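new request in #modeling-help
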Amino acid sequence: MPQSADKVLDHNKLFHEPEYKEMFKNKRATFENAPTAPQVTEILDWTKSWDYREKNLAREALVINPAKACQPLGAVFAAAGYEGTMSFVHGSQGCVAYYRSHLSRHFKEPASAVSSSMTEDAAVFGGLVNMVDGLANTYALYQPKMIAVSTTCMAEVIGDDLNSFIIQAKEKGSVPEEFDVPFAHTPAFVGSHVDGYDNMQKGILTHFWKGAERSETDSINIIPGFDGFAVANIREMNRMLGEMGVDYTVLCDVSDVYDTPSDGNFQMYAGGTKLDDVKAAVNAKATLSLQEYCTKRTLEFCEEVGQKTAALHYPMGVAGTDEFLMTVSELTGKEVPASLTLERGRLVDAMADSQAYLHGKTYAIYGDPDFVYAMAKFVMETGGEPTHCLATNGSKAWAKKMQALLDSSPFGKGCQVWAGKDLWHLRSILATEPADLLIGNSYGKYIERDLNIPLIRLTFPIFDRHHHHRFPTFGYQGGLTVLVKILDTIFDKLDTNTGTLGETDISFDLTR
Amino acid sequence: MAKDIPDPIAPEKLIEEVLSAYPAKAQKKRAKHLNVAAPAPEGETEIASKCDTVKSNIKSVPGVMTIRGCAYAGSKGVVWGPVKDMVHISHGPVGCGHYSWSQRRNYYTGTTGVDSFVTFQFTTDFQEKDIVFGGDKKLEKTIDEINALFPLSKGITVQSECPIGLIGDDIEAVARKKKKDVNKTIVPVRCEGFRGVSQSLGHHIANDAIRDWVFNGGEESSYEPGPYDVNIIGDYNIGGDAWASRMLLEEIGLNVVGSWSGDATLAEIENAPKARLNLIHCYRSMNYICRYMEENYGVGWMEYNFFGPSQIAASLRAIAAKFDKTVQDKAEEVIAKYQPLVDAVLAKYKPRLEGKKVMLYVGGLRPRHVVDAYHDLGMEICGTGYEFAHGDDYKRTGEYIKEGTLIYDDVTGYELEKFIEGMRPDLVGSGIKEKYPVQKMGIPFRQMHSWDYSGPYHGYDGFAIFARDMDLAINNPVWGLFDAPWKKSA
């Protein structure tokens, strides 16, 4: 009997006990109709071959392990960053359960959102009744300051018109006439979560800004974009802008929403951008997006109302942060203070101290388009060589932009850009053309296992490690977090490779 | 502990309070789903209390935080997804497959990507043009590509997402055609998320797909059955539950022919109708196919419960009673063999857990089946409810719970929080969406869908882990740190 009360074994160890191993062997031999061991080995080897890679890359219809989610997730994330806002997802209810679970699993925090719970009858007759009753229930139960409505693919396929439905719901008294109910159509079969973020941002700004009288101020707006590290990144950004003395409004601030304290109270609505600030933000002289691919439509709208706009690609690393600070400086006329110059010097110092371990390391990087861009840029600054950059939700335009970035440095030479490809493509690519390190989210752990390439988790979602999002990746300080994660992975690998007593431990070094 | 809370509020009063927050129409609907377990009616002495007056399996009220999922979640996420040597296509837009990717910890053995595919996400990733022109051609091509890239896969299921049914795609025709082309079992499953009121219909649809496309349309099984052949039905091997159960069944002399669907292969499903008996753990999700196997193949079925030593022993005896004396004697031997483990676990953990109050809100069978495991540890259940139960589940619940227990069906986030605040249990067992709000209140929590990434909880091996996990949840020092010392009242 493997189990004991003295030392309780759970699944990690229990199933490696002889009793269980014997059971698995018997099951496979007797009942599973499993392929033989040589067959498995043959196919496993083949999946790592060039022949397989060619067949795999030729795929036209099937998508395997894509590094993207669907629009409504981005919409729910964006809405969460506004004061007292409840996300109301119009459509079939299972989707909302998924968004809430997904966000909770990453942030280890509550994620609130409601559904209009449409079923077969709504598929036939439309979801108006669900909207009318639903808004009334949400308003009564959860007492939000704003309800942000987005759609699932079901509501989009049947063609429900949110604008008209919300007007009718208000006429029927579901919520008061003046109550804020911005909306966005977010079909899951168009784009990905970054588009949903964009559409909801645009929906909220349109709601507050459309037709507003604008009197320009010196303030600027900053849109962080969909970011799994938003909790620490927005705070780090606030700190930097505080050092600069900039007057600004963060449009969609989830930093407190997904980081509430444990003090005995559950706060459904914590933090978020104040609705009055959103209204006033129309007067800002400019809107700066930190992630261009999350904000294309939103920035177009900002231009329409008369603001200047600028977009970055996730300010990470030295040049990425430089660009952020200089853009802010340009937009606001505020100088970059000595304190930030000092921080910059410290990051550069750290990079210089460690450059011998970073120089020439090769990387495969995947994730959202802006993240991959920023990560590749930072990697090249350290003397690393990105060899594969992949964004399942990356467009041809993105690939072109990536190529221009890679061409700008000798360290980007030979890097291949993979727009629209998935993580099973990446596995084939790395099996045939390996890299030293893999950078992405938790889903990369399958590639890590199959190909023995260490994974560094630096983007959303991270399910299998805790609290990474509590440390910034933005800014010079964030650069240090990223740098240390990369270095730790490199050092761990060195130690593993030299860690067998009396066999491989000649270079098992104490000092590096 | 962290918050100063007055004495617990009576369940009847709590129900009244939460209902008062709703608009009239929703209030009327929700009132039918909330109740307090009453004494058993006269004559029904076997049942400790009755709670089957609760209405269930009705549409959720719109605009509230229902904890329910959808039919796709029921079929792909629960029933089909764990079948390891088949490829399951999330047919439609990218999201559903993405969010359900590797989230239920359906453990399996095998070489992932070669002969096992549970932790993969296969999708047709619908784009706008697929909505406009239909996705059948894309599905055909997808099946060809799967066949070329994964030659050792034994079959394919097509898990329909919402748009498939709405745009009128004929996935059944595609399945029939491609079965001939690739000569493998192909199963179309009409589990669009808008069907039915919860994941429950997805379970039923998934069961019907087994009936129609595996039993009556798949390969003829050449398996030679024996007198001790049984199937484990409705165990999804979360954290290895089905394995801890299989261990016991094999120890009492039974052969587990099929494991449904945790760690299952297609062959195990095909062979199942030749078994002597179906042993069903999650009644809600797989009773349908058991009834079908009974009617059409004469395979009897019985429910069992492997949570906690009282129920494990009772179940082992009940299962053994369906076989000969050899098995019955072995069952007694096995119960005796594990008694020292049970005694040691209880000796260690019962003193730390005795008298603690628990509230549950889960799906399937757990709101009733785990109750006695808590009782074995000296704990009390003060409230329980299901996400997607039907009337027969609530009837079955009466066997387990005591009079005065708060019962809530399809509870909304609002209601659950208010109930927890009012009852101040020592532990809440529910899902990931409920975990963090509850913990913020300072109340220990265990995820009772995924065992909080622990497990197994089934069987004797699992009970030790269950006891340990309840102890580590409740007795961790962190719950005493919520109040800053400078804010603590004198």
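bot summary: The first helix of chain B runs from residue 11 to 19.
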